[in-house]
């Protein structure tokens, strides 16, 4: 063996012309590498695994694996009364439990034919949009954390989220597991003082946060280089795959259930729907930044015009509700997309079938298509831009 | 010009950094927890407890063992056995009231459905134990807390409950007087 290294045994060196110089790895036909990212990878936002097949650093195949956080949510709800399922919906998308509550009570109200008083509708819109703000603030922070901007934008975002959660805690008793919506209205009334403080916060510190975040990030060259053209989703594929929410609008499809279905009293408010042009991760980030400004507009209009009255329909029955046999599907525009609840009643006190349409699960289905051809580091950013919460994906 | 966005961003971080000295209320939110306690709002809910009036936790207990909270509890963490006298007649008070706080999810439905304002949500949250089975299953003596405690933690709610109960007692008193 040692003999080969003697000088006389070495092959004669040849000089090749510059045209013949090629990178050494062109001749290197290695095998594809398969790596398993997750379920405990910090960038997967929970317990989510991606089986990534790599050619060098380029993704050629990606298989999303979920189910690690499956908690049997639908079956538990089918074994409980309609009322007892409300606190379980908090635990679906635990970043914005207010919108989950809303979607579920909306479905039951449709099933049982319960009407909601005017004031309760206004307060619901205020809380629903507040939930959207909390979710988007989180998303922007964690997306930037995925990009490697270790902590500064994340901590600025969490600081503002904390202030909103303090308001939510004061009102509902819990920071994240609010359990605040009831069939026919809300659990308690909201005081004028609370609304005034929310208004003061949104006009003051939160407006400053949005401006600062825009100045800090939106024009930042590093953010542009890392996100523009990364994870492009074509509008055709987005529509075919059933993508909803900010991810669909980032691809340039004008579809917002607040405008399409006109559920609750959204048609009374003046707000815009931001539409993207490229469908890349940067557009998805921008959708969230712009939607936050629209949500603030809606909340301020609602606080200005909220009427006096009842916070819950006094005839609505919560405990021991037995809707007539039938089925209902109700959907709302959640922060992540179309959040729907499908209920079948057989006339008893328990739902016969309880089915959730989680937006983040459906939005995950195109992950392979938008990741192929990107580098491994970009898949982390793409996943951050899709905005998943595993409590909702796995249920 | 390339790099303007980065310089703008650095200006923002510098502003935040300097702001933490001049405007800590707006820029700094950290609390040094064991030394500094966060302000708990009245609506805050952790785990349920039972209220008793007066000084005797057994005699003054408001709970009548109607089992409404036991039936409505979503994760079924409450178990109640009513007291019986020697002849087997059900008395209106619980013999066993157990609450498994390792199962309880703090939703507050029990406090919401209780018709006697007996079960309420507690503010106490420093409840870590070294053992995870029996010490997390709270029994009647551990759950019963005085009305004074409730008045201290929930001043607004306690006032409303006290006036409601006083009115009810007055009504009952006048009813017993009128036929006599």
Briefly summarize what is shown.
The complex is a heterodimer of chains A (395) and B (180). Chain A has 395 residues and is α+β, with helices and mostly antiparallel strands.
Any chance you could write out the topology, listing elements then pairs?
The complex is a heterodimer of chains A (395) and B (180).
Chain A: E1 33-37, E2 49-55, E3 58-65, H1 73-78, H2 86-90, H3 97-112, H4 118-146, H5 152-172, E4 181-182, E5 185-186, H6 192-218, H7 221-227, H8 235-240, H9 246-250, H10 257-260, H11 281-305, E6 326-333, E7 338-345, E8 351-357, H12 359-364, H13 367-371, H14 376-386, H15 390-394
Antiparallel strand pairs in A: 1-2, 2-3, 4-5, 6-7, 7-8
Helix pairs in contact in A: 3-4, 4-5, 4-11, 4-14, 5-6, 6-11, 11-14
Chain B: H1 4-22, H2 24-27, E1 48-52, H3 68-72, E2 78-84, E3 90-100, H4 109-113, E4 119-121, E5 137-138, H5 140-143, E6 144-146, H6 147-153, H7 155-177
Parallel strand pairs in B: 1-6
Antiparallel strand pairs in B: 1-4, 2-3, 3-5
**Approximate shape of chain B:** elongated
CATH architecture of chain A: Orthogonal Bundle
**Any low-confidence stretches of chain B, pLDDT <50, length ≥5?**
none
CATH topology of the largest domain in chain B: Alpha-Beta Plaits
- Strand percentage of chain B lies at 15-25%
Largest interface: A-B, 36 and 30 residues
Beta strands of chain B, count = 6
Q: Determine the fraction of residues in helical runs of chain A and give it as a percent range.
A: 40-55%
Biggest sheet of chain A, open or closed, and with what strands and sense?
A: 3 strands, antiparallel
The name CATH uses for the topology of chain A is: Cytochrome-c3 Hydrogenase, chain B
Whole-number mean pLDDT of chain A:
84
**Gyration radius of chain A, in Å:** 25 Å
Number of H- or I-type helical stretches of chain A: 15
Q: What's the N-to-C terminus distance of chain B? A: 95 Å
Fraction of helical residues of chain B: 25-40%
| H and E order of chain B | HHEHEEHEEHEHH
Question: Secondary-structure element order of chain A, as H and E?
Answer: EEEHHHHHEEHHHHHHEEEHHHH
Per the principal axes of the C-alpha atoms, what is the gross shape of chain A? Answer: globular
Oligomeric state = heterodimer
Domain count of chain B: the total is: 2
